[in-house]
Amino acid sequence: MAQSFRMKPPMGEDNGWWWQEAAAGRLAIQRCTQCQTLRHPPRPACGECHSFAWDHVTASGRGTLCSFTILHHPQFPGFDYPLIIILVDLEEGTRFTSQLINCAAEDVAFDMAVEMVMHEDPDGFRLPMFQPAKGAAA
Amino acid sequence: MSHALKDKAAIAGIGLTEFSKKSGVSELSLAAQATLAACEDAGLPPSEIDGFVSYTLDSTDEIELARTVGANDLKLFTKVNYGGGAAVGTILHAVMAVATGVADNVICYRAMNGRSGQRMGQGISGQIVSSDLVHWSWYMPYGMLTPGSWIAMIANKYMHRYGVTSEDLGRVAISQRNYAQSNPRSFFYGKPLTMEDYLASKMIAEPLRLYDFCQETDGGCAILVTSAERARDLKQKPAVIRGVVQASTRGQEQMTSYYREELDSLPEMELAARLVYEQSGLGPDDINAACLYDAFTSEIIMQLESFGFCGRGEGVDMVRDGALDIDGRLPNNTHGGLLSEAYIHGMNSIAEGARLVRGTSTSQPEGVEHVLVSSGVGVPTGALILGRD
Predict the structure, then answer these.
(1) Which of A9, A15, A67 has its CB closest to that of B156?
(2) Within its chain, how far is the Cα of B106 from the centroid?
(3) Residue A1 has pLDDT above 80, yes or no
(4) A–B: how many Cβ contacts below 8 A?
(5) Is residue B273 one of the residues assigned to a domain?
(6) Residue B219, by phi and psi: left (phi above 0), alpha (psi -120 to 50) or beta?
């Protein structure tokens, strides 16, 4: 298996399941099974009703760009710069931090429509990234 | 209950080491130098120190420092979490101890080889699982590995919403750099900054350029807190603590509170403002100068709004009006701040707050009665108001 530069998340009880979903190609959103509130990042209990019972839904992968930053420096091995990091408001209502790909730095804009693509590293590690939504204005 | 702390304690001494990029000594040595300097400044023997408070990120344990400076019985030793968010929180813990009789003379300290040793934001590694590491892991795999990358996301949203430009950030950087020209301790002493220099500086994490970032510094700073009564008998004019609070709000993360509905304000700083004004019985109109935490220039503009010096979205107007300059409405970071003096995690800004109250800043505005000092931005934070006795 190829070496990867990417810092891997520690896989604990509260977050490991989410990465297993990503490994299976899905962008998961945790859901409280008592009050149905969606939450991200995952936590062991619901901040609304305090239930520890949860499952998850699979996000459609569609969303709009809430904010972004374009990273130039320092440059870490393995990442392509300028590196576009985004906050996506998913259509389900939660927000997700990710990377925007297949988009030139000068074309990034607030409120642009984006869609999820599952990225896979040479070592097989998968994580959700986003690209401009097909059919959306460039 | 919080009013029980008002005017009970004072900063009686401040101590600093030399600021450099390579101290050549241990962080314990820096902490000890700063502590002894604070005691000397106050005219209080180190043997009378009975409490030490620092940051969880500080490598020097309280008892190591106590042994090194020859302190005796300790009745308080504690560390405050969340990076620079700890800054005035250390003062709060000292004041609570002094006001309740738990301890009499407390040293708050932060000493770091912040450039030559462990640098900030170097990330995580290893197989340890903790809630904090899980938190960072939502960002690190994407290459968000530095404080600048985390803050830029909020800065960009805020600037987009309110029409804040790169030149506006530059105005903040230049205002503080101007103060540094009067302060020989400052890293940028003798090195003024023009708007041209600012705009030409390297883009780091859009919209933040090199000169939007604070320093990395080797150095230490200690603040001696004692009762207001005792402070009056010591060498320096007391900087009386009118109010001091910690504040964290719903949805709080360290640096990445991205999941709140609004991203263009600082809820935890607004809470700190409300609490510190309540405790002190003062309001924005009573504040004559400030040391607002400035790991990044954008944070200054946002805090002007958090602390009620103007309305939402109006911080930039204050900056354009020169409010932060020595003859402005709110002279800010008159030592040069973390941007231009040194980055001792905000402790050096508490020292400047005390100087402003004493009337001994290297850029001393006229008629300073009350000074506001804040802790780190984008993390659980706090606020402090110092007043003339």
Answers:
(1) A67
(2) 18
(3) no
(4) 105
(5) yes
(6) left
In chain A, residues with a C-beta closer than 8 Å to the C-beta of B141 are 6-9, 127
ipTM (interface pTM): 0.91
Q: Which of A51-60, B114-123, B323-332, B376-385 has the lowest mean pLDDT?
A: B114-123
Residues on chain A touching B138 (C-beta within 8 angstroms): 9, 41, 97
Task: Report d(CA B99, CA B2) in Å as an integer.
Answer: 11
Residue B163 lies in a domain: no
pLDDT score for B127: 56
Whether A136 shows a pLDDT value over 70: the answer reads no
> Best of B142, B146, B213, B264 to disrupt the A interface by mutation (most A CBs within 10 Å)?
B142
Please report the pLDDT score of residue A4 as a whole number: 73
* Residue A76 touches chain B, beta carbons under 8 Å: yes
Alpha-carbon distance of B59 to B113, in angstroms, equals 10
Cα angle A85, B163, B325; round to 5: 105
Residue B261 lies in a domain: yes
Work out how many domains chain B is built from and give that number.
Answer: 1
Residue of A71, A81, A130 to mutate, testing the B interface (most B Cβ within 10 Å of its Cβ) = A71
Cβ-count burial of B346 within 10 angstroms (0-12 exposed, 13-18 middle, 19+ buried)? buried
A96-134 pLDDT per residue, tens: 999 999 999 999 999 999 999 999 999 999 999 999 998
CATH code: domain A60-138 is 2.40.50
Over residues B2-17, mean pLDDT: 92
Which of A9, A68, A82 is closest, CB to CB, to B156? A68
CATH number reported for the structural domain that contains residue B62 in this entry: 3.40.47.10
User: Is residue B314 a part of any domain in this protein?
Assistant: yes
